[in-house]
Amino acid sequence: MVLFDLILGLLLVVLVQKCLSVTDLFGAVISFMAFGLLMAVAWVRLEAPDIALAEAAIGSGLTGALLFSTLGRLPHSEARQPIASRTVGSGPGYWLAAGFWWVSIMLLSVAFFLSLLELQAPGLGGYLQERLSESGVLNPVTAVLLNFRSLDTVMEIAVLLLAVAVVWSLGTVGWPAKQKLSLPLLVGLVRLLTPVFLLVAFSLLWRGNHAPGGAFPSGAVLAAASILLLLAGKTIRIYPLTMFWLRWVLAAGLLVFVLAGMSLMFAGYGFLVYPEQWAGTMILIIEVSAGVSIGAMLMALYIGGEPDFHAG
Amino acid sequence: MTTLYLVLVGVLMGNIAIGLIRILRGPTVADRMLAAEFFGTVTVAIILLLAIAMDKSVYYDVALVFALLSALAVVAFVTRGWPDRKSGEQEDERG
Amino acid sequence: MADWIPVVIIFGPLLAAVLVFTQTVRGVTATLVTGGILLIGLVALGGEVSGQGPWLTWQPGGWPVPLGLRWQADFFSVAMLAMTFLVAVSGGLFAIGFLPAAMPSAARHFWTLWLFTWAAMNSLLLAADLFNIYVGLELMALAAVGLISLTRETEALQAAMRYFLVTLFGSMLYLLGVALLYGQYGMLDQAALAAVIEHGLANGVAAVLMTLGLLVKTALFPVHFWLPSAHGKAPVPVSALLSAVVVAVCFFVMYRLWSGLFFVFLAERPAMVLGAIGLASILWGGMQALRQQRLKMIVAYSTIAQFGYVMLVFPVFVADGAAFLAWHGTAMMVLAHGLAKASLFFAAGCLSIAHGHDRIRELTGGGGRLGWVWLAFALAAASIVGLPPSGGFVGKWWLLQAAVLGEAWFWVVVMVLAALLTGSYMYRGLEAAWRPAPPVEAVRPVPAIMVAVTLFCAVGSVAMGFLAVPLEGFLGRTFQPLPIAGG
Amino acid sequence: MTAYYLILAGVILAMAFHGLMTRANLLRKLMALNIFTSAVFLFLVALARMAEPLDPIPHAMVLTGIVVTVSTTAVGLVLLLKLYRRTGSLTLQSADDD
Amino acid sequence: MSAADIAGAALVVVGVLFFLSGTLGLLRFPDIYTRIHALTKADNLGLGLICLGSAVQSGSLLTALKLLLVWILVLLAAAAGASLIAQTAHERGIRPWERQE
């Protein structure tokens, strides 16, 4: 097992070094995606199946597609570009500041590595095992995400919705995007794969309560399915009415979560305090709505702008 | 038994290291993409072997999601990621 | 305790933002309605805090601390929530007049991002869990990036990109520190950790990393370069919110850490380092402000200088003088600075609408409505510099008293020097007011609501000086050890 | 033995920090920031594995972090494209406060 | 070490060997079209045998079917990807390698 760790660690370090220093931008992006893949292997090695699922769906799938659509719009991404930035300043002031910075960072990193020896890592695993039965779900990570620390998940879905709002504020995108080259094979492939995508997405969503899965990997797989449909040119035409529904689907996950929490508060249990007998079903409802709206939000992030249906 | 699988995983990781050379040397962008697709498949294989070595059947689902997503990366590259100089770059969005 | 108060304060603006995003409610009405609801929540919170002792805690999700999360509020957080409320509502009112004049195209997206920022700030002011603070910092940072890049001009986009990279790096440093602490004690709650933490290398490195991350976000000396361009180039109500409150909330989080979790480490050496950072920020911010040609850039650099001044509280507190006085001075100064800074940016906005630019050399004197704008600018500048009747003076005076009592003479000299420096660059902005009034047709009319809001914030900042005695009583028990959470 | 992963995370942190500071290209800076984030998450999950029994709290934290990171990266990429459309370059000119 | 284990292990070892051939092909072949051939070998047979080996080894039918699905999906992705890349490469004017006499 030690040999495996060493090789994995070496490969990760080499990929990071390649990603940051290979002259060609495209090679850097590919090294970054390979780094994502190997990180998923590291999550599997460290027995974190939920994170491996999320990394697989979001890390290598979605981030890769995002990077490619960005690179596609930068024509000279293959050209050799200067790597290091030219030194900004000159004269004693700059070197004094640079020297001060260099020394302080070295000290901090040495202290950081020394402090690693002290960490006892007590962890809350045992404490959580006792209370898991009261949480209404069997999978400990889902229990933490949706019951014990549910406030973090609410704010995280808010971050995702805010990211969509910021991307939409930055500009509009012609919809549906004109397809540059016709690929009949791609349409066939997509027709075959889409049912499997939907099957896997909803199976991940359903078993989130008792096994690794849940709202985030299933949302990411849904987003991947819709991106494939978009790339194959199979996109629906958007009218003002669909735009209205699109905004509500995007906001559904956050709204359901917050309104459920508030209704519990008004019912007297307290904000986001699930009563014992309904905990399972409420968590399932929240997870399904969150999964679907996360899929829609990640798709909106991939499109990279507010769909402008006048252009269609 | 698990040591055999771990040795095999080590060999597969060696494949990734060799594949890395193609990323650096690959003259065209498509070669680099081939190497990336190769990494995807090798990762699925590594996760399968780890699933056997650590005998946890949950990792088969991770491999399944990886297999699904490897198609997305290639398609995204071919349709959007390949910078195309001849036909120029249409302005498909109004900033 | 009333469980609904923090829920209303945090999820009020969040739900309003979602409603504005789904276009069911117009932005302006959503902001005003949220303001009304939050006013009720704040009054109730103030009553509860003054009624039931310094610390209030709530547990969303109902689980005891090491497993669940906790909200906490004391006097300082109530005062900060009130200041955030004032700046957010006045910024909203200002935007009603400013948006159609300056950037009609982006008005559609402004309100969603504005309400998201407000929700993020409120959640940070009430959060007691270290990881919850991380998610709150990310929410606030992303909303601020959206607000800065709203005008889509090249300068604004570059400022937004620079801010994006720097502030996310700061959040990551903060998260690394939190990971170290979790690795050491397996807990994420401030109070629970404060009871257990003791000297050690891992805790020291965690303290340095978390403080460095927050320093990056408060834009103090070593890592300040992003702020002038971000605050200077952003639309006016945005730079008012960013300078007055977003930076203050980051300082508030650092204040929470150093007065609770890392209070054990607040010995001689770390306090001196923090004081040195403050001193360097004062000097650098002041020098740069003297060189600026544009009014908004002067006001942006003064933010760096003022928060450098506020950092002086750590060495003064360690100098075993009147410790409580130092904390009250800091709290008062941050509050007064918030309102005054908002008013300065609003005034700069009115002037840039009137003249079409804000280069000091070509600004004209106060005539007609511009007279009121310059009056507000003068009042706010007085509060920033710390002239006697204003809130800023009371904060700085208390800090100076604490320094004198603690015989920290070096820091007394520094404070006096800082006051002089602030006075000089504020006057540079002000001297344009004495120029002759402009011919009527040369100046575009400034909407009345903008002038009213500018004046309101300036008067508010000065009025805090007159309310010093009751506020001192209200803040009196600010500095209490954190509540030992149950469970 | 998982303590080895803490050291690995530290090495990747150092490399990502160096890359973030020295690379001028904005896309590389974004990737360096993502690698820095992945290293912090590796640090957290290694801690989770070192604890006896396996501690799922860092797993939930990292899951939240991954979603936050993908949303910030998406915003960063759109901002980068807008900047490229306006200035034609992928680097930030030095702060030109006039 | 039951028979299934040994059979599974043998299949997996052969699978890994095919991966090796795929890597060498990816490295040694002169142009993109030939490299695609090498790559699909690694995908179809390499992964196929590993899936088969682990299916035999795991013993439960559900896992075997899931592994079959994994294999089919990777096959689909590799085949479609290979022809897509080849087609677009051809359109982009990448000429196949000829042996210079």
Describe the structure in brief.
Chain A has 312 residues and is mainly alpha-helical.
Total number of domains of chain C: 1
What summary fits the major beta sheet of chain C? 2 strands, antiparallel
Largest interface: A-D, 84 and 68 residues
Strand count, sense and closure of the main sheet of chain D?
Answer: none
Distance between the termini of chain D: 55 Å
* Number of helices in the DSSP assignment of chain C: 19
Helices and strands of chain D, in N-to-C order? HHH
Tally of separate helices of chain D: 3
From the alpha carbons, calculate the radius of gyration of chain D and give it in angstroms: 17 Å
Gap from first CA to last CA of chain C = 17 Å
Strand % of chain D is under 5%
CATH C-level category of chain D: Mainly Alpha
The general outline of chain D is elongated
Number of strands of chain D: 0
Quaternary structure type: heteropentamer
Question: According to CATH, what is the topology of chain D?
Answer: Helix Hairpins
C-alpha Rg of chain C (nearest Å): 21 Å
Task: Tell me about this structure.
- The complex is a heteropentamer of chains A (312), B (95), C (487), D (98) and E (101).
- With 312 residues, chain A is mainly alpha-helical.
- Chain A folds into two domains: 78 residues; 174 residues, no CATH class.
- Chain A is built from eleven helices and two strands, in the order αααααααβααααβ.
- In chain A, strands 1-2 form a two-stranded parallel ribbon.
- Chain A is globular and about 65 Å long.
- Chain B has 95 residues and is mostly helical.
- The C terminus of chain B is likely disordered.
- Chain C is globular and about 70 Å long.
- Chain C has a two-stranded antiparallel sheet.
- With 487 residues, chain C is mostly helical.
- Chain C is built from 19 helices and two strands.
- The model of chain C has no long low-confidence stretch (mean pLDDT 86).
- The two termini of chain C are 17 Å apart.
- Chain C has one domain.
- Chain E has one domain.
- Chain E is 83% helix and 0% strand.
- Classes of the chains: A mainly alpha (312), B mainly alpha (95), C mainly alpha (487), D mainly alpha (98), E mainly alpha (101).
- At the A-D interface, α1, α2, α3, α4 and α5 of A face α1, α2 and α3 of D.
Ordered list of secondary-structure elements with their pairings:
The complex is a heteropentamer of chains A (312), B (95), C (487), D (98) and E (101).
Chain B: H1 2-25, H2 29-53, H3 59-81
Chain C: H1 4-21, H2 27-51, E1 56-58, E2 71-73, H3 75-102, H4 107-126, H5 130-148, H6 154-185, H7 190-196, H8 201-218, H9 226-233, H10 236-259, H11 268-291, H12 295-310, H13 313-318, H14 323-355, H15 369-385, H16 391-405, H17 409-430, H18 448-466, H19 468-476
Helix pairs in contact in C: 1-2, 1-4, 2-3, 3-4, 3-10, 3-14, 3-18, 4-5, 4-10, 5-6, 5-10, 6-8, 6-9, 8-10, 9-10, 9-12, 10-14, 11-12, 11-17, 12-14, 12-17, 14-15, 14-16, 14-18, 15-17, 15-18, 16-17, 16-18
Chain E: H1 3-28, H2 32-58, H3 61-91
Helix pairs in contact in E: 1-2, 2-3
